[in-house]
Amino acid sequence: MADSPILYSFRRCPYAMRARLALLASGQAVQHREILLRAKPAAMLAASPKGTVPVLILPDGRVIDESLEIMRWALGRHDPEAWLNGDDAALIAINDGPFKRHLDRYKYTERHGSDPIAHRTEAAGLLDALDARLRKQAQLCGARRGMADMAIFPFVRQFAAVEPEWFAARPWAALRNWLAGHLGSDLFARAMVRHPLWVETETG
Question: How far, in Å, are 30, 60, 71, 147, 149 from residue 26 at the CA level?
């Protein structure tokens, strides 16, 4: 374990969630360092000055500080469920770009000074497209869960939690079933295990 990569993570961050999901699916052991985003440790900032999670530090000193890159690194080493066959870079880019922008302005209205209903409407249009896709197949890229599902569903989870009753009333039966399936999975339960807060020492 001492020779395993170091992972800086924050439990509720959707970017960190998807990295943890891929690391678990690949069987890649890590030294998990749970942090608080309001008190970022100096060791993490020294490795990745941009100060966001997840951050993966490999045993050779290389740093991977983008969640999708961590996912692809882990799955490139071992991909027992063939998640990389269910990769859709364009769909993930929509999630990480316009959907995330609207999600933030819907969820964090005061921070952005935004109109939450306008941004909820824009985000809902993007979820319409996901629901239409999922009416035709069980997962975003076919019958089995893959990279696109794992990269996107933590953000749909976050959106659904803003106004649960409103989300439940939308005509998104396929999307809700897909989301519930991932939230109820053993893999997600393992990814969401609570770790004690990592305490930085002078030796790191």
Answer: 11, 19, 9, 12, 15
| 3-state DSSP assignment of residue 189 | helix
Question: Would you list the domain boundaries of the chain?
Answer: 6-82, 84-187
Query: Buried b / exposed e across 132-160, counting CB within 10 Å, b at 16+?
Result: ebbeeeebbbeeebbbbbbbbbbbbebbb
Statement: residue 99 has pLDDT above 80: yes
| CATH numeric code, 6-82 | 3.40.30.10
pTM > 0.85: yes or no: yes
User: What was the pLDDT predicted at 200?
Assistant: 85
Q: What is the mean pLDDT of residues 93-99?
A: 98
Query: Can you spell out the DSSP letters for 89-128?
Result: HHHHHHIIIIIHHHHHHHH-HHHHT--HHHHHHHHHHHHH
Helix 14-26 to helix 67-77 angle, to the nearest 10 degrees? 0
pLDDT at 1 (0 to 100): 57
Structure confidence at residue 3 as a pLDDT band (50, 70, 90) = confident
CATH topology of domain 84-187: Glutathione S-transferase Yfyf (Class Pi); Chain A, domain 2 (1.20.1050)
